[in-house]
Amino acid sequence: MAEFDYDLFVIGAGSGGVRAARIAAGFGAKVAVAEEHRVGGTCVIRGCVPKKLMVYASQFSEAFEDAAGYGWTVPEATFDWAKLIAAKDAEIDRLNAIYIRNLTASGAELFQSRAVVEGPHEVRICEEDRTVTARIILVATGGSPWLDMTLAGIDNVITSNEVFYLKEMPKRVVIAGGGYIAVEFAGIFNGLGADTTLVYRGPEILRGFDDEIRACVRAEMEKRGVKFEFDTIFSKLEKGADGITATLSNGKTLAADQVLFATGRRPATEGLGLETAGVELDGVGAVKVNHESRSSVPSIYAIGDVTNRVNLTPVAIREGHAFADTVFGGTPRHVDHTLIPTAVFSQPEIGTVGLTEQEAVEAFDAVDVYRASFRPMIATLSGRDERMLMKVLVDAQTDKVLGVHVVGHGAGEMAQVLGIAVKMGATKADFDATVAVHPTAAEELVTMRTPSAQLRREAA
Fold first, then answer.
1. How many Å apart are CA 153 and CA 256, to the nearest integer?
2. Is 334 one of the annotated active-site residues of the chain?
3. Peptide bond into 348 cis (omega under 30)
């Protein structure tokens, strides 16, 4: 039998790679991990975690306004961007240290270096300019922001990589994109007081989500002051003495201090040597894998965003754990990529699990839609013009809940709990049999008795 320097070499120390390394090491494998940036990956260092902290910061502006309706007299508030960024940096440093400590404590060896695949069992550690061998190689390099490098003036924009490290808060922000990152940062900058415009090539934000949810969130964002330019793209970007001028294909020009491009992410496989090693990639550069996360090369696996399956941190963690259990633990485990609950920390927030109304109608002959739109209790005394929306989609033939969608305060927290019920195959009768928690917004989920719509597919 051939001998290798390591049983497992992981390229990428994000949440998925670290989980895989720790679990494999726990099974007795000799493990090495290479990371060219900071340990923790996109989510911890320049994604979900710092973004959520900034969402919290931006929400205080509304809280101060709402307090007056509840009898509080709040002096005029001021905001210190530098203080927020310093506090955020300190928290990210803490988490980075924890990730390193947990990884090394598991027995894995950490290389703070870029690593490149040189063959089915060979990895070159670039900083040390040496090649090591491994029985199994795991690619967990995640994704990176995509930019249209043909756009005139593209060098004047920032991405989600840079936005967390701006020295000054921009007073005028233009955001390109309509997905998670674009919508969440539109809420952040708007909440912090910046003049905020979102530019999107499509007719509505958050493609892939339930259409009614999309429209509701956009309408609520407009109430808060976010401006939208739909069905248009950027023609050019010019930097001058007064900031950046963005020219759109519809002829409009927008002035900005910062232009944030959140136009999608691509799997981070460029320059990794995967094609040379025989690893098959798809059209966007994602590693093609089977249900075990194994690539076209039997000794090379891939997990997380680099595979472009479901690009969410908890999914990468689950895939990493399943990989280690299967390959090193002797317990085959496969990740079920269906019925995954998720949240968008937009303002208002979205929590969702299961099928959208459009998907349900396409897949089932009879769908009942239960819908509740209402003013949340917190807005009654504050006087804020705000609406929550809840939808429960049910297969009318089996009574099984197909999807649940919530817009409003606490939607993300609700989605986690709703995910359990939907994953277990709960029926509408199960929802109805659950006693409501009063007074809460969530009680609407178990008190809706009459369908708002009954959608039926006509017989052929």
1. 14
2. no
3. yes
> What's the mean pLDDT in 320-331?
98
Q: Which two tokens stand for residue 17?
A: 């790679």
Alpha-carbon torsion, ordered 281, 286, 287, 291, to 10 deg:
-120
Structure tokens at 350: 């979205």
Predicted TM-score (pTM) of the model is 0.95
Catalytic residue, candidates 37, 321, 334, 438: 438
- Give the integer Cα–Cα distance in Å for 5 and 368: 58
Q: Are 223 and 386 in contact (CB under 8 A)?
A: yes
What is the CA 376 to chain-centroid distance, rounded?
26
Pairing, β 143-145 against β 265-267 = antiparallel
Distance, CA of 286 to CA of 282 (rounded, Å): 5
62 by DSSP, 3-state: which? helix
| 24, amino acid identity | A
Residues 6+ apart with CB under 8 A from 348: 216, 217, 220, 221, 386, 388, 407, 408, 409, 411
CB 319 within 8 A of CB 335: yes
Q: Look at the alpha carbons of 227, 231, 234, 240 in this order and tell me if their dihedral is positive or negative.
A: negative
DSSP 242: T
| pLDDT tens-digit map of 386-408 | 999 999 999 999 999 999 999 99
Burial class for 26, CB neighbours closer than 10 Å (0-12, 13-18, 19+): middle
User: DSSP readout, 346-404?
Assistant: -SS-EEEEE--HHHHHHH-SEEEEEEEEE--THHHHH-----EEEEEEEETTT-BEEEE
